[in-house]
Each structure stands twice: as C-alpha cells, then as structure tokens.
Backbone:
C-alpha cells in the first residue's frame, strides 16, 4: 500500500519503498479522465483530472498503480560523469570530452570531440555554461523564426532550469510576455528543441490546449509534433542525468 502523508499545508505525498514522492494535482476543465506521469527527474508524481475531481480520487488512482510508479522511478537515470573521455550529448549527437590542461577554457567542437581546457576542477561548470550559451543562441533563432512565421511580436526569451517543465509562456498578450525554455533541450535533437519553442509561441495566441492551439502549432512547426513528443517521452529523462 501507498501511504498518504499530510504535513501542515503541504501537498499530498506517496511513499514508495521508503521514498516520499510529492503528488502535483492539476485540474483542467477539458480533462475527461485521470492521467498520471512522473516528472522527468523523478521529483514528483503528476496527476491531471477533471475540474470536479476530488483529491481523494487522485490518491486512490495513485494507490492502484503502485507497481507502475515504482517501475517509472526505477527508470529515472542515475547521475552521469562529466569529465575527460566522457560523452556529452549536443543537439542529438554525442561529443567526446577532450580535456587538456593547457587548452582553451572555452569549449570548442572539433569533429566528434569537445575540446576544453583550464583547471580540471572547474570543467563541469565550464561545460554547463557553454551548453547554456548555446541553448540561448539556438532558442533565440528558433523564437525569431516561429514568431515571424506566425506574424507575432517576439517576446522576451529566458532559459529555464526547471526540473519539471520543458517550456512555459507567461505574461499578458501584447505586454510583457516571456517565453522560457529548458536549457537541457540543447542536448536533444534540433527538432525536439524547436518543437518546444513552437509550442510556446502558439501559447502566445492560445493559452490553452484547445483545437485552435493545436491547429496553430501544426502550422508553425515544420515537422510532425508527435515525433518530437515521442522523443521527449522516451528520452527526456536522460537529459537530467548530467549536471544534476
């Protein structure tokens, strides 16, 4: 059995094999049934339910799927090494980290290698900063492209270090809108990152996931959205194995 814990005003939690896992319950007017998934980094269990659903319904739903939850937790990637000779994914390709103490501190792609120098103690930080700079550059290009395609004003762009979302769109239409994209998407294939940017651009017009939203997204994005969604569902958790 899964025990339900309440401590003050905290969200409900489930305990599996001695591990407390928060439950994030989201109610949506368009939802017709309960659905459940684990956050990519295994930090929480997400349950979506109709607006009229009860918290106890969500708890019972989780309780009946203890084995599934345990199986999903087992799939969460373990932290991976970031150092000389290790592999770093970049835009869907593997680059072998080539560290040389006397090399340039700023990482540089050389064929299938990523050359980086400087003190070995700071290599992880330098690689992460390089990836984040690349993510900002690429996402800015993506954002400009999709805003132009949609005839939309370009909002502010910021990188996100969120553990639970790939992208978000906030602010009032036409004033102070901001799109945030998870920097880890720079490690995914280009079409996956671009699908998330296109998704958030569509939210500049439609703040829901209505048929109108999906129709606009299909017009904006040049590849099948389902392909990118399947990649994120299958491989997205692996992007959290590095730079934990």
Residues:
């Amino acid at each position: 059995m899964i025990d339900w814990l309440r401590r003050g005003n905290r969200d409900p939690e489930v305990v599996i094999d001695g591990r407390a896992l928060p439950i994030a319950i989201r109610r949506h007017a368009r939802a017709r049934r309960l659905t459940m998934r684990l956050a990519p980094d295994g930090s929480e269990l997400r349950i979506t339910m109709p607006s009229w659903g009860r918290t106890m319904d969500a708890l019972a739903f989780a309780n009946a799927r203890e084995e599934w939850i345990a199986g999903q937790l087992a799939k969460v990637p373990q932290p991976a090494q970031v150092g000389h000779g290790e592999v770093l994914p970049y835009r869907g390709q593997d680059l072998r980290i080539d560290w040389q103490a006397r090399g340039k501190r700023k990482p540089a792609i050389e064929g299938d290698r990523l050359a980086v120098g400087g003190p070995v103690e700071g290599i992880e930080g330098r690689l992460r900063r390089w990836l984040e700079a690349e993510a900002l550059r690429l996402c800015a290009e993506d954002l400009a492209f999709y805003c132009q395609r949609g005839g939309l004003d370009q909002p502010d762009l910021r990188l996100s270090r969120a553990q639970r979302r790939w992208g978000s769109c906030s602010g009032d239409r036409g004033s102070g809108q901001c799109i945030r994209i998870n920097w880890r998407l720079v490690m995914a294939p280009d079409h996956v990152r671009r699908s998330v940017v296109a998704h958030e651009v569509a939210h500049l017009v439609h703040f829901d996931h209505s048929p109108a939203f999906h129709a606009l997204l299909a017009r904006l994005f040049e590849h099948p959205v389902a392909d990118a969604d399947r990649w994120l569902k299958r491989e997205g958790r692996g992007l959290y194995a590095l730079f934990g």
Summary: The CA atoms of residues 6 and 12 lie 6 Å apart. Residues 1-9 have pLDDT under 50 and may be disordered. Residues 123-150 form the longest helix (28 residues). DSSP finds six helices and twelve strands in the chain.
